Amino acid sequence: MIVDNLQCTANDEGMTSLSPLLKQATPVVVDHAHGSWIHGTDGRDYLDFTTGIGVTSTGHCHPKVVEAARDQVGKVIHAQYTTVMHRPLLELTEKLGEVLPAGLDSVFYANSGSEAVEAAIRLARMATGRPNIIVFQGGFHGRTAAASSLTTAGTKFSAGWSPLMSGVHLAPFPYAYRYGWSVEQAVDFALTELDYLLATRTAPDDTAAMLIEPALGDGGYLPTPPAFLEGLRERADAHGIVLIVDEVQAGVGRTGRFWGHQWSSITPDILITAKGIASGFPISAIAASESLMGKGWPGSQGGTYGGNAVAAAAGVATLGVIEEENLVQNALIRGEQLQAGLQQLQEKFGPTERGGIGDVRGLGLMQGIEFSTSDGAPATEIATAVQQATTGHGLLSLTCGPRGNVVRLIPALVVSAEEIDLGLERFGAAV
Ligand code: PLP
Fold it and tell me: Of all atoms in ligand 1, which is nearest to the CA of residue 143?
């Protein structure tokens, strides 16, 4: 089989081709990967600031994660958790207990972020007996039918396969840069609109949950202002609404705090985690108080592969590495270095009539660069061209945002100071 380009020759008789949807990927075919680096079948080395969309938290193939997974494969690969429990899941639960906020002492597992989002929504509806869910403009919560009904990070995430789940109400997100407001003004506006929504469209008695990311991910790498999260917490408490924080992309050290919501003073009722938790093995979880979690019934959640043993063992190793190598602190410091370097580039390549760097923002190793024209319009073509050019310069990056005009950089939590400098040099060359 020839695997050095996106056409795979499956056998001598016929050509098997990847779906056209997959050919949108960069032309890089990974041969092997370590730490912050992807080595292509083209013989080139790429500095990976995409980490499989924020997944390979401890870097590619961290030796301790590899060893844990290898060891587990020889013991038990799969044992369905509603039939028999297995040791890695118990160990992962114990490890998560060390980092979960006080009060969120009960954990349930699935495979992906979307499934965990759905599990959280089901739980909130079962616990409250109420139908409606409030989501915030620009939120991304996944691609399954229910998760894409909750997603407003761009029309492309639901166009063509509606109608979706009903009972979803959309409230504004405090997007200060877009409207030229201060953060306080944006928070004020968004909370006033939320109160109006609760007074007119979905009464508190009909509202099961509010679902928010600690920093918008696919919606444009916008940190959620702490005051906004605190405003949501007040309203959730006042009305018995379940506050769900989707930490799928922002959690597990990514923002320089273990959980993204820890930049604020709130504790959510349900926390959703996935991606970085197992360095690339598919596993996700929701955490809540035992009393809230008990409102579901066995079999109302999960699926055949949920909480897979090998993925759980990789999760235990991942959390161990994050602790031993002080990676949350590394994310904070390297994030500051990255942001400072990007701000220097912003000074050099600010918006022109055609477009330039209008805004640099983010928390820790979750940094977004928004491209705008001098009159503030989204400069999507420039952002796309820059993102594509980074590959040629040996740096992998991604775009995001409802208009696709934000380039996002998501290095591994193990990234070094030298790698950040090199990434900035390559990003600058692409701009
Ligand atoms: N929630 C957030 C915040 C995400 O960023 C994503 C994926 O990017 C999801 C949910 C969905 O996760 P998955 O793609 O694993 O289903």
Answer: 16
